[in-house]
Amino acid sequence: xxxxxxxxxxxAGGVSLLLFIWIIRLEMKLRKFMSGKSAKSLExxxxxxxxxxxxxxxxxxxSISYFKNVEMRLHRSIQGIKTIRFNPFKGTGDGGNQSFxxxxxxxxxxxxxISSLHSRDRVSIFSKPLEKFKSNFELTDExxxxxxxxxxxxxxx
Length: 157
Description:
Strand content: 15-25%
Number of helices: 3
Mean pLDDT: 88
Order of helices and strands: HHEEEEH
Distance between the termini: 96 Å
Largest sheet: 4 strands, antiparallel
Number of strands: 4
Radius of gyration: 41 Å
Structural class: alpha+beta
């Protein structure tokens, strides 16, 4: 079986034509991709994008640090504030409901409870420090109640 050289020439020409069309098509895509840009400006764009990504990572790290600081300060801030009014002299009629107990407590139960006892002739004010919802000083029933109410408002255990 002998293959005609003219047939081989037609096949080679057809393949060459297909390759030529493929090259032209690739060249058009490349020009479209690079339109208005040179290889130098494309490299500058990539360098600029790398710098912007680095800046974004630095901003992310600073933001995380800031939010951790805010979170830490928030845990130490006063979050539970409650006040109850009461009459310490119920049977005698002295004082009315002018006496009160107020607690100022952070998330871990540290803070202070301030209470006052009002009578006709004097007012006494007491301040007792709190650590983990407890005090080294004896607490009245009203002070214990206001501490428990504050504890419930901040959702502590």
